[in-house]
Amino acid sequence: MTNPTLSPQSDEYQQIHDGIIRLVDTARTETVRSINTIMTATY
Cβ of 13: how many Cβ atoms within 10 Å? Predict the structure, then answer.
């Protein structure tokens, strides 16, 4: 048995990759906002 793989050129791979990038960027932005709010409140 071989494991199915996505070729780097496939549309599915690109969609998954783009989704992960958006997810990480959104998480990073929300984290910075939360930390900024906490730092401002404690200052």
Answer: 13
33-43: pLDDT as tens digits: 999 999 999 98
Where along the chain do its domains lie? 10-43
Sequential DSSP letters for 2-36: ------TTSHHHHHHHHHHHHHHHHHHHHHHHHHH
Using alpha carbons, select from 17, 28, 25 the residue that is nearest to residue 9.
17
pTM of the shown model: 0.64
Distance CA 33, CA 39 (A): 10
